Amino acid sequence: MKSVLALAVGVAASLTWAAPSRTHATQDNPEKGRKTEWDGYHTWHRLTKGRAITGDPTGFLGNKEFEKGYREVYVNAAGAAVSQGQSPYLYPAGTVIVREVYADKKAWEEKKTPALTISIKLKAGAAPESKDWEYVLIPPGEKEQRGRGNSETGQFCTKCHLNAKASNDYHFTNASFFEGLKKKN
Hints:
Residues 1-18 form the signal peptide. Keywords: Signal. The protein has 185 residues and is of the alpha+beta class. It has one domain. Helices cover 26% and strands 18% of the residues. The protein contains five helices and seven strands. It has helices spanning 2-16, 77-84, 105-109, 152-161, 175-184, and strands at 45-46, 53-54, 70-75, 96-102, 115-121, 133-138, 145-148. Strands 1, 2, 3, 4, 5, 6 and 7 form a seven-stranded antiparallel sheet that branches. The protein is globular, with a radius of gyration of 15 Å.
């Protein structure tokens, strides 16, 4: 649990002091020759096109200081129709959701190096403790931390994602989420 806490602090610090140049954390292939589930994500459906998510609009995260950044959210073809459809939002195995997390509006506008948080939907029963999702965290310029089930990273991410409820497949960003944001503004 200490390493997950250290990761959270590290992500928060990285978001605050992210370097202006892009690092391997935001490139589509972080290690030369290594294929990842999120390769090419900039070409996927962009859920936040023209409307980056800011802060903690749902209040689910307790308005933690490091959650006040700007986010761009992408979803691959496997999950695009679900995220744009109607509840229940039950994503098929193979769905990958990528969030670029920027420290603030200026970092977002300048496209400074964001942290990446990635969710990968697994086959039913593959990781029931994390609701069949695997999570990847990549602070700028650092190596990925990946986890599912009872792993530290899996537990850390699942704790917040449980607030999104089963009808949203434990994810916040979908058509209903954006409709709710419109009503608030």
